[in-house]
């Protein structure tokens, strides 16, 4: 009984606190930060780097895919991307014809893991060929930084791949203040549309609120 009474009082106290606090007014100050993607946003205008390698990985595993199929899940972390390609109906059919069993699209399944193991070195081998900044990117970044706006970046690439991108971008005049790769977020949550790469960037940058 005493515990119930204590809980009731605690709830009343919490309610009273938030009533005093009131609703938060929308932020109306200056922009403090922007978070940018890599491929197709700041570099690699046609998002070729991952698509080309996805096609090569599937070909290596005996199931050729089209560039359209390689691109369909674009934006996901790369192991998740492979799983989503396996879920494409035509790809799944070709896989079953080639291997005699339906593919396992689960990220921790043997099919995704085997292909992702091949994907990483194959992507690293060619990544520096697709690091050219989009026209105007360096100028836009300089404008933002000159106006005290911080720059964060997020991507479905892994940290070791992002290191390649960062080194190449720096030579071209682009150095984000924070960079978060898909495998840098705890609990395997570094994928879109989940917001946690964004949140990690904002934490790194010391920026709040999100509006």
Automatic annotation (TrEMBL):
SUPFAM superfamilies per the UniProt record, alphabetical: HAD-like
Keywords (A to Z) from UniProt: Hydrolase, Magnesium, Metal-binding, Schiff base
Keyword Metal-binding recorded: yes
Cofactor(s) required for function per UniProt: Mg(2+)
Membrane-spanning ranges: none
Superkingdom: Eukaryota
Gene Ontology molecular function: hydrolase activity; metal ion binding
Pfam families membership: Hydrolase
Stretches assigned to coiled coil: none
Subunit structure: Homodimer.
Protein name as annotated: Phosphonoacetaldehyde hydrolase
Lineage: Eukaryota, Metazoa, Chordata, Tunicata, Ascidiacea
């Amino acid at each position: 009984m005493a515990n119930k009474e204590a809980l009731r009082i605690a709830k009343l106290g919490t309610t009273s606190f938030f009533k005093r606090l009131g609703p938060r007014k929308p932020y109306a100050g200056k922009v403090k930060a922007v978070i940018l993607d890599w491929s197709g946003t700041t570099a690699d205008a046609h998002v070729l780097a991952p698509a080309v390698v996805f096609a090569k990985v599937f070909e290596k595993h005996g199931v050729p895919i089209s560039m359209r199929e390689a691109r369909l899940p674009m934006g996901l972390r790369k192991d998740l991307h492979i799983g989503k390609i396996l879920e494409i109906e035509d790809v799944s059919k070709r896989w079953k014809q080639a291997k005699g069993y339906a593919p396992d699209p689960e990220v921790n399944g043997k099919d995704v893991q085997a292909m992702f193991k091949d994907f990483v070195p194959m992507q690293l081998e060619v990544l520096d060929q697709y690091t050219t900044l989009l026209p105007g990117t360096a100028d836009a970044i300089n404008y933002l930084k000159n106006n005290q706006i911080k720059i964060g970046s997020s991507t479905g690439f892994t940290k070791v791949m992002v290191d390649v991108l960062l080194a190449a971008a720096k030579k071209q005049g682009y150095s984000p203040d924070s960079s978060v790769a898909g495998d840098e977020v705890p609990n395997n949550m570094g994928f879109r549309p989940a917001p946690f790469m964004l949140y990690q960037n904002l934490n790194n940058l010391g920026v709040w609120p999100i509006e």
